[in-house]
Amino acid sequence: MPATKTGLISIKTDGDDKIEIVNQLLLPHATEFIEIKSIDDAHDAIKTMKIRGAPAIASLAALAFAADLSRALKSSADFVASPEGVRAYVTPVLAHLYTARPTAVNLGAATRRLTATLDASIVAGKTGQEICADLIAEAHKINDEDVGRNKKMSQWGGDWLADVVKQNGGSGNELNLLTVCNTGSLATSGYGTALGLITYLHETGKLGTAYYTQTAPYHQGSRLTALELQTLDINSVMICDTMVGSLFQHHNIHAVVVGADRIAKNGDTANKIGTYNAAVLAARHKIPFIVVAPISTVDLAVADGSGIPIEHRPPLEACLVRGAIYPPPSDAATNAEQAVVMITPPGLKGIYNPSFDVTPAELITAIVTEKGVATRRAGEAVFDLSAVV
Ligand code: MRU
């Protein structure tokens, strides 16, 4: 059985007010931790993608919110004196955090959960100080519970997939999977979702090879997933985004596993741009397509994928690649000197840069959450996720 290695860390806290995140813009060539000292720091880090991945941005927003309130309590800020004072302070802060990125619903789920805590504590007749304490505890829970649920869904999904492969005449071992983007420790509070499932199969000796796309234009695959798989010593192969069809034609791929930024009630799923391409090709090759995400990613208020807001990133981001200078300018064994390089003519007009696409439910074989594995009923093109949430 392969040795289990520890994954990377996206967020460090001292359990009190100090929060640090690894600057994912500089990975994999430099590891720089940045301190998040305010709500604005958190908002900026999420918006500029120093931290990214739906669960990780929800965790950071919650922790920054908790730290902000904790500082207010320590300094006996005026608003703490009354429940309505707390509401007046907290409501715009949560609304502001919610605007940092629009597609990942986990951020909204976290801010709504904190608003619900606020309402419940006020109705219970608590003092301003007690309400702040409740909010701080709830915010920490949002971060703390992530790793446990990631491990659960990884196990549910990994065992289920191995069984499906066995039922179809395979051994259920040496499973070859393709993933898109980065869904590991860096995208969550730890272990990961789709990458968690891959890690679980590796830990239980059932993984063959994990293939992953580079994931242009931000290269979450070649920069972040590559680093995570290397750190965990997982057998893996990187492919360019354009090679998915070729991979399916020439290799025995048992499943595509991806994360999600928002899942509509019918199962339509928004995830990193390029996921839909992989799903269409998987359907053509009769390869199971599995979405792994926490329940907080399911948005029952959105009936289908047409209602999911899709973030478009600044056009310039699609014109740039970032990385280390190669060959290294010195003889240094590690090359941390960073460069951002423009790959288009300067001043190029007309750039399409949606950050996510929507994979219709009919192309999805299973949606795995911490509650188990949901599949579509025979003959149905959509999921009924209201039964799962
Ligand atoms: O733009 P990003 O890097 O935040 O996009 C991340 C993804 O699309 C992930 O697949 C998704 O958030 C799931 S992370 C566990």
Automatic annotation (TrEMBL):
It comes from Mycena albidolilacea. It is found in: Cytoplasm; Nucleus. Pathway: Amino-acid biosynthesis; L-methionine biosynthesis via salvage pathway; L-methionine from S-methyl-5-thio-alpha-D-ribose 1-phosphate: step 1/6. It catalyses: 5-(methylsulfanyl)-alpha-D-ribose 1-phosphate = 5-(methylsulfanyl)-D-ribulose 1-phosphate. Its EC number is 5.3.1.23. GO terms for biological process: L-methionine salvage from methylthioadenosine. Keywords: Amino-acid biosynthesis, Cytoplasm, Isomerase, Methionine biosynthesis, Nucleus. This is Methylthioribose-1-phosphate isomerase. HAMAP family: Salvage_MtnA (MF_01678). InterPro entries: IF-2B-related, IF-M1Pi, IF_2B-like_C, Initiation_fac_2B_a/b/d, M1Pi_N, NagB/RpiA_transferase-like. The record marks 181 as: Transition state stabilizer. It is an enzyme of class 5 (isomerase).
